[in-house]
């Protein structure tokens, strides 16, 4: 069963074609890593999947619900009610954390649970406590983001993404803003999620991590999927010359 289906996705910014007919399917429990050079379209693909950008053409289905389809050659998005439903099915972890600076750690995690998902404060707090324990931040519940390290901020971001029990989580370069020591802590949490069969799509430059955790790796460049396969196939024995050239730097 596919949790995510992206079919013939096109996206342009003015005259610049950023995505040129991308097809991506992610099965339940699968971990897909997307690698490639900067400017290749990786982050734009995630932004389109999570409604931060609108596509020009194509179809996106998340958790069985159609977010957008093409009608008469143009992308047509679902209505507002369905949009809320679709957005509840995914979580997103940004490279720059995107926490609300004026909210405590607890409120960053519980705000959407209470006001969007209509959980009681007691239930939201219970979910929050469980996730803060899972990510090793229980003692930081009442702190504000300005008092946290980069690694702690990213763990709050992961807890927030997990809070709604999503079908799939998207990670956009989750360690790019962190130093090597803090990076290992974040990668450990993501590895644990993979062991729990969480469905994930991870844009990353961490090749060793992608090789270790991903069921499938996709190499993107120039707005297209150049090559994909298992970690062993793609990193160990790439077939495309562009893939070989990219991986030679790692």
Write the SSE topology.
Elements: E1 2-13, E2 16-27, E3 31-35, H1 42-49, E4 57-62, E5 65-71, E6 74-77, H2 80-87, E7 90-93, H3 105-115, H4 121-134, H5 150-162, E8 168-172, H6 180-195, E9 200-203, H7 207-213, E10 216-221, E11 224-229, H8 231-236, H9 241-247
Parallel strand pairs: 3-9, 3-10, 7-8, 8-9
Antiparallel strand pairs: 1-2, 1-4, 4-5, 5-6, 10-11
Would you write up a description of this structure?
Helices cover 36% and strands 28% of the residues. With 250 residues, the chain is α/β, with parallel strands linked by helices. Strands 7-8-9-3-10-11 form a six-stranded mixed sheet, sandwiched between helices. A hairpin with a 2-residue loop joins strand 1 and strand 2 (16-27). The longest helix has 16 residues, at 180-195. The chain is globular and about 50 Å long.
Rg, alpha carbons: 18 Å
Biggest sheet record:
6 strands, mixed
Shape: globular
Strand order of the largest sheet: 7-8-9-3-10-11
Assign a percent range to the helix content. Answer: 25-40%
The stretches of 5 or more residues where confidence is low (pLDDT under 50) are none
**What is the mean predicted local confidence, pLDDT?**
92
Q: Which sequence of SSEs, written as H and E, runs from N to C?
A: EEEHEEEHEHHHEHEHEEHH
The oligomeric status of these chains comes to single chain
Q: Which structural class should the secondary elements be placed in?
A: alpha/beta
Count the DSSP helices.
Answer: 9
The CA-CA distance between the termini, in Å, is 34 Å
- Strand content range: 25-35%
> How many strands?
11
């Amino acid at each position: 069963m596919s949790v995510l289906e992206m079919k013939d996705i096109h996206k342009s910014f003015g005259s610049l074609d950023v995505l040129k007919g991308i097809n991506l399917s992610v099965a339940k429990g699968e971990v897909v890593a997307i690698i490639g050079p900067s400017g290749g379209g990786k982050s734009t693909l995630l932004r389109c999947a999570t409604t931060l950008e609108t596509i020009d053409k194509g179809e996106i289905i998340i958790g069985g619900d159609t977010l957008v389809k093409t009608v008469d050659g143009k992308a047509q998005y679902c209505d507002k009610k369905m949009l809320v439903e679709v957005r509840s099915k995914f979580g997103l972890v940004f490279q720059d954390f995107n926490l609300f600076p004026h909210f405590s750690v607890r409120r960053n995690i519980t705000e959407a649970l209470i006001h969007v998902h209509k959980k009681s404060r007691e239930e939201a707090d219970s979910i929050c406590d469980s996730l803060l324990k899972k990510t090793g931040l229980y003692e930081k519940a009442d702190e504000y983001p300005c008092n946290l390290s980069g690694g702690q901020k990213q763990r709050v971001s992961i807890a927030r993404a997990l809070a709604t029990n999503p079908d799939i989580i998207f990670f956009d370069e989750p360690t790019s803003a962190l130093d090597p020591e803090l990076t290992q802590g974040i990668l450990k949490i993501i590895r644990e999620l993979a062991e729990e069969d969480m469905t994930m799509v991870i844009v990353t430059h961490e090749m060793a991590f992608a090789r270790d955790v991903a069921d499938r790796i996709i190499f993107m460049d120039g707005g297209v999927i150049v090559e994909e396969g298992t970690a062993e196939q793609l990193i160990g024995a790439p077939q495309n010359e562009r893939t070989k050239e990219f991986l030679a730097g790692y």
